[in-house]
Structure formats: C-alpha cells, structure tokens
User: What shape does this take?
Amino acid sequence: MDTLVKYSYDELEKYVESLGEKKFRAKQLFSWIYSKSVSDFDMMSDVKKDFREKLKNCAIILDTKIKKKQVSSDGTIKYLIEFCDGNCAETVLMRFDNRSNLSACVSSQVGCYMGCDFCATAKRGFIRNLEPYEILSQILTIQQDTGLKITNVVFMGQGEPLNNYDNVYKAIEKINEYLSIGIRRITLSTCGIAPKIRQLCEMELVPTLAISLHCADSNIRKQIMPVENKYNLEELKKSLKYYCEKTGKRVTLEYVLIGSLTDTKEMAQKLCEYIKDLKCNINLIPYNPIGDNKYKKPNKKDIMIFKYLLESQGKKVTIRLERGADIDAACGQLAGKV
Ligand code: SF4
Assistant: This one.
C-alpha cells in the first residue's frame, strides 16, 4: 500500500497520473488530506467513485494508528501513536484559554539519547529518528480523531528535535505550508545543542525557541542533564543571544522545579544572574514525579518564592499549568506503559 502523506504535492501529481488520472485529482486529494483531515477515501465527495475505489485498493492516507488514548478532565488528550514498524511515540493535544487555540505537542524521535535524569523517555534509550511525514502524521491523526484544526505545534514530545535536525526542519516546512500554521506558531524545544541552534538561525523558517534549561548551576545541571558536559551554560547562552539578535525574538527558558534541588533561593539567584542580559521569558514547570522517587515535587511556597525572585529582575515568568494531571502526561510516561 502507498502512504499518501509521504508525498509532496508534486509527487502526488505524479502518483495520480501513474494511476491513469488527471493531475487536478492531486489537488482534490491534497485538500481532503490536509485541509479537511479526512481518514477515509469515501468521505472525499468530489472525487469520482471509481478513482476512490482504485485508491482503496492501492493506497492509505496515513500509516499510523492510535495505540492508546487518554482524555483528561481538563481537555488534554494524550495519544500513543504507532508507526508502521511497530514503534510508538507520544503526541498530546492541549487546549488553552478557549477552543480556538489548540496545540499539538509532537515527538521527533522514538526514545532519546540525551539522558536527562528526570525524564521518562531517557530511561528507555534511543530507538530511531522520526521521518518528516511521521511528524506530520501525528498532527493529522489528532485532527482526524477530533475533527478539530490544530493552530499551534510544539516540538516538546519524545526526543531531542535538534538531534534529528534535517527531518524536523522538513516537517516544519510541511506544517507551515500544508497545514497553514504560521512559523510564529511553531515552537521547537531543545535541551541546548548550541551549534544546531546557530544553524537553525540561518534557515528561512526559524521557529520560536524554547530551551530546557532546568538549572543555571553548571555542576547540578551536569547531574541532571548530561548535555551540559558537551555544550555548557556559557556556550548555550552565546547561541541564545545569537538567536535573539538574528530573529529579534525572545527565547523561552523552561525550568523544571525539582524539590530541594533546583527550586532553592540559591538556584533562583543563579538563574537571575544567568538571564540578566538575555531577552527571555521563563516558564517554571513544577516537577511531575515519574515513579522512581529519585526527585521530589516542589512545594507551593518554594514555587512562589522562586517566581517572585525572578520577577523582581523584571522578567516575565509563568508557571506551567498542570495539564493532564489525571493522565500520564509527563514526557514519555504513556509510552513506558505499553
Ligand atoms: S528531556 Fe528531552 S532531551 Fe532530555 S532525555 Fe527527555 S526527551 Fe531527551
């Protein structure tokens, strides 16, 4: 079976011609797949019946399936998506403010080799990179399943996107062009692969950048994030300043507050020092335990003190709402259960 989502528009034209059809059929298919997100050839009402029958015998739209789905009371939906080789990765639909702002959090790899110590995905190691169409398929799967149009995409699921640079960039191009999602609505989150951040700045489409900083003390960061041994905080900061200069945008720093480790006043002061000359917003993420009891949840008082200390430096600080608290919504938790 041929998987249609693998094809670019030009390739789809050639494909329909190879089936003995006129080129304009590709335009019809493209619209049904990407604008209307249908899952079934029979729903393509303006495609003639004998062509639909032909397609049913030789093609499928997506080669992914939903292996598991959890719906939270706050509207978050977490999917475990199975690819054609049996490997799975997670994709999450998050709703903010109102129904018109729908974010898909997509995975870029099956597993991850960055080894962050607090991360459920890291515990299972690296399996493979996802292809551009497999990244796109995650968004289409959500749209097909819910009938809703995704408005924002964040590369914040399993994997380090900058370790799968070429495929992620191609996926960004397709998300932008085929799904009409503006580049400002696409966010890439990285643990801090400094040279790849610089490389990204030279591209035509530069997404919004979020950095998993999580600690501004190099020794503690090394304990929880091995990337610090290769690209340390200083090198990371130079690449972030370059991003800000080149794009005129701010970066978002993601900071996991781990009880009695990264949530202390001393750590807040180190973070203030680190960010004082950086155009950034800070997103604090209270740690969500992954079941091994190694790290603790922060308490509410320490979260508020930490936030206050950063705000007193004039920085915009948000605390990430706990989405999907009643489902397995931390990175990698659902995949680990299958
Ligand atoms: S937090 Fe992200 S970069 Fe670190 S191991 Fe997990 S998936 Fe990889």
